[in-house]
Structures are given as C-alpha cells and as structure tokens.
Amino acid sequence: MSDSFRLRKRHWTTYHDLATLVGASAAEVGGVIAQSAHVHRVLQTGGRISPQFRWPDPERTDDPRKVLEKEGVTFDHTGRANPKRHVTADRFRAMLAENGVVLPSGDGHQPPPDPTPAAFEQFRQNLAYARQLVDGGRSLEKLAVGSFDVTDLYRAAWTQAVAALDHWVTREIIDRGVALALTPGAPRPRKFNTLDIPVELFEKIHHRNEDLGSAFRAHLERHFSFMSFQSPDKIKDGFAHVSEVNLWVKVAEVLTDQDPANPITADGVRTRLRDIAWRRNNIAHTADHDPVRPGKKTPITADAAEATIDWLETMAGAIRDAVGDPIPAPNPDGPSGMSGVSPTAGAERTASRRVKRTWEEPDFLHGVEQYCPGSVRDTLLAVYRHAESHPSFHEYYFGDGEYPSVTAWFNLGSDKASVWSIYTSPEKSVMTLNYGAMRNHGASRERMARLAERIGVLPGAGHIRDQLESADYTKHPSLQPFTLAHPEARKVIITALDEFLSGETPR
After folding, report:
1. Which domains does the chain have, with CATH numbers?
2. Do the beta carbons of residue 312 and residue 159 sit within 8 Å?
3. Largest alpha-carbon pair distance within the chain?
C-alpha cells in the first residue's frame, strides 16, 4: 500500500469506502488490508471495530480500540468511532488529488455493492433518521423554544426506532425465506415446511412458469404484512420460520461476548425489548400518558431516546449474528423450533376449561424478585435461565394460578414432559420436580432415581427418593426455600438436571 493511501493517526475509514475508491469488492479490499500495519484504522460501516478483527502479526494481542484511542480516535458509549475523524471515499480522492493521483469519480464504473444486506442497511438509515430527531430536539432545547414540547421529538425518535426494527425483522424473514426456497439442498426449519402455500401459487410456478423467487416473495409479503414484530415473542416466532436457532439465548451470548463487562441473559434481552415496545405503544396510543401523574406525559430525555436507538441497533446486529449468514444449518439435537417463551401457549391449550389469568414472563420475573429472599431468588433464576440454554429444552408454560409460576418442558427422548415448575407467592416460593409427569412420558425409574439421589444431598431434600419409591414415582415433591437458599443449591440442581436430561450416568 502506497504512502498516499496510508491513513494518518487520529483518522479512520471503512472497507466500503476503500472498495468504492478503488472499484473492488469490500471482501477483496479486506484481504489486502488484513496485511497492512494500519489495519486497525479500517472499521466496519457505522464506525465499529469488526468482531473478527485480527492483527497481521499473530503474536500481537493488544486491543485495537485502545490503540486507536491512543492515536486520538474517540468512541461513543456504543463503540462507534468519532464520525468527524472518518475519511470517506470522497475525502480520500481529494487527498490523493493533492498528491497528484487522480482516480475516476465512479460515474463510469460502479464498484460492487456494500455486502451489508439491503434490509439491514435500510434499518440503519431509518435509525439515522431517528437520531436526527434526537439531535434536532437537543438543538431546540438549547434555544429554549417554548412554542411546543421539544421532548415530543424524542418520543417520535423512539417510535421511529421501534418501527424500524419491525420493518427490518419483516424484510429479514422474507429475504431468508426466499433464499431457502431457492436453495433446494438447504435444511428447512419446521415452521418453514409448514407454511400454508395456496394452490394459486403452485399453479403460477408450475403451469405458468412464473419465477419462483418473485412469486414466493410476493406470497411471504402477503403472509407477514399484517404481523407486528415488536415484542420478543413475535420476533422469535417470526425467525423460527427461517432458523432453528434458540434466538434469545444466542442473542444474549452474542451481546455478552461483545461487552463482557455487562453480561446479559436471554430474559434480560426480552425484558428490555418489551419495555421499549411498551413505551412505544404508550407514546402512540396515549400520547405517553404518565399513570403516576394524571394529565402529564411520562418524562423522556434525549439521552434515553438515543440509548434506546443504539441498543436496538446493537440488538438487531446480534440477531443477525445469532441466526447466521445466510442460512444456518439446524441442530438436530437442539430446540425443536417451537416458541421458547409463549405467553399465550398455555391459555390456548386450556381456554376451554380455564378462565383465570395466564401469567407471562415479566410477571414471573417480577414475582421472583418481589417474593423471594436473595439466595432463593438467585437459585431459581439460575435454574430458569439454564433451562432454555439446554439442547433438550422444548418450551416454558406460564401458569394461571393466583401468583406467577412457570413450568419447563423438555424432550426426554421418546416424548416431551414437564420436568420442573417454579411457584412464587408472598408466603414462600418453591421448585417442584414433576416426577409423575416424567414417569408418564417415558422417563425410566433408574433415571429418575439418579435425579432424586443427586438432589438429595441438599439439606431438606434427603427424603425425596424414599418418598418417591414408596409412591412409585407418581408424586411431585417440592424443594423448599430452606433448600433453595443453600450456597450449593444452584450448582447441585443444575448438575443433576443436566445428567437427567442427557440420560447418561457419569463415569
């Protein structure tokens, strides 16, 4: 690479800028740049360091961000480099012209397009518009404009960001669905295989020789056009048409890998997304009515709106990483593609005989926080979060009793069964082991006995095996708060469940 192309300290560019400049693909540019001593100054579109960044020297392990910061490049709290230090393709041309190097303007030869999918690029553009609303509000606040409520611009930005996510998810699912249809050898998720296909579509392709991609895209657009992808449950259900990945567990892993100092769990991702979607609905339907202060709006700041926009962008990127590019192969030992958290699943199964309220995940999490002492809470949440990360996990079913509860269903090999339940209440919260259900769905006595034996080492749980033996494993014994509060409780319970669900005895 010539001196003319070298970026000076305190500046950065992107692979796309360099590709535009020289008329090559971003991948080709990346291959060349990877051998440059200044590779750390070439970032992804948007100004972030690539998660796959590697130094040319394999022995070098220092953080490229720290190197850039020492050189004078600052980063915001989302990891984006200062845009004022961004050397674009046009700025490069001007710099080269000053050195007597003139490149074509690009009018005659168009470089290959940015490898970023069109759907995600449009999503970023929509978020950029939301950020402009925030910036405009900040400017008006400084001018002390009193003719209207400036914070309504922040509310508009919030709504725009959620709408951008909704639109992107829809396009991403459709794009991936079309790719699946056009790739006969690609493994297909269960929900993709059970899509309703009208006879009209079959006739268009088979008898009228219409293009499969165009006809199927039009069908998917009609199918998903009336759906909203703002809540975590709807988003997971939508992506289940095109991916077998355990979505929110994988998204949480990606986000935690990106920011190890701030780890997040799958339910933590869902909770934040629900809160964002709820606020959007409150803004759209009640003008952001504050339930605590009748007649007033819920306060909102530029920083809060900007943080929401940034998080949605980061979270959407994590979804892309989680589902893979372009089509991830399903794991035959993983979740079945059924919804992991389905607040309405239990209600639909039992609507004909139950009229009580069906709880949802936020209610359950709130119940654990509200009703459980710290040590009990930590054990129950660890067991709850362990469930959906397990390969044999099937689904959660949230109960409809007086207080929030949840039951975890797993694949036991020959059948699915509810393995455990957690019940919360002001008096006490317990974890029930559903031996009767496991027995009725194919679990062997030996397998259940090992589970009881492993858990029986905890205080207050030693009697469980004898109790089960006398009742032919038809009972559903509960672990009491005293047992759940033990320092080793979470480790013992999770280890015992892992062994039980694997169906194997450790050597």
Report:
1. 3-98 (1.10.10.10), 118-323 (no CATH), 345-502 (no CATH)
2. no
3. 92
Q: Locate 256 and state its tokens.
A: 């935690």
Q: How many Cβ atoms are within 10 Å of 147's Cβ, its own excluded?
A: 6
User: Is the pLDDT higher at 416 or at 350?
Assistant: 416
Give the C-alpha separation, 320 to 306, whole Å. Answer: 21
User: What pTM was estimated for this model as a whole?
Assistant: 0.63
DSSP string, 42-82: EE-TTSPPPTT---SSTT----HHHHHHHHT--B-TTSPBP
How many angstroms separate the Cα of 485 from the Cα of each of 19, 378, 408, 409, 490? Answer: 58, 8, 21, 24, 9
Stretch among 13-22, 37-46, 225-234, 346-355 having the lowest mean pLDDT: 346-355
Strands 430-433 and 405-411: unpaired
More confident site: 482 or 336: 482
Residues with Cβ within 8 Å of 407's Cβ and at least 6 positions away in sequence, in order, are 396, 397, 399, 418, 420, 421, 434
pLDDT at site 327? 46
Instruction: Output phi, psi for 203, to 5 deg.
Output: -65, -40
Residue 299's alpha-carbon distances to 148, 261, 275, 279, 286, in angstroms, are 15, 29, 15, 11, 14
Q: Which stretch of 1-5, 191-195, 365-369 has the lowest confidence by average pLDDT?
A: 1-5
Strands (E), 107-219: none
Question: What is the C-alpha separation between 286 and 283, in angstroms, rounded?
Answer: 6
